[in-house]
Design goal:
Largest sheet: 2 strands, antiparallel
Order of helices and strands: EHEEHE
CATH class: Alpha Beta
Radius of gyration: 12 Å
Number of domains: 1
Number of strands: 4
CATH architecture: 2-Layer Sandwich
Strand order of the largest sheet: 1-4
Strand content: 15-25%
Number of helices: 2
Distance between the termini: 12 Å
Length: 72
């Protein structure tokens, strides 16, 4: 059985909106937010949690350790 994500957290205090997590996700789980945050960044948002297979690529490639995936 494939792994599934329970939750994906993006820490808005650590994320600088580089979007590396979006580009490395092979399943299209994340997209750029449509509005900027209070610092002026377009943070990544989860658009399809069901598509996440907990591969960890977003976590591994995040230079700021701002994203975490919790497995079911």
């Amino acid at each position: 059985m494939a792994k599934k994500a329970k939750q994906i957290n993006v820490d808005p205090r650590l994320c600088k909106g580089c979007h590396i997590c979006i580009s490395v996700c092979p399943h299209g789980v994340l997209e750029k937010a449509e509005v900027v945050d209070e610092r002026g960044f377009f943070l990544p948002v989860v658009v399809d949690l069901e598509a996440c297979r907990v591969c960890g690529l977003c976590e591994i490639h995040c230079p700021d350790f701002a994203i975490s995936v919790q497995e079911e």
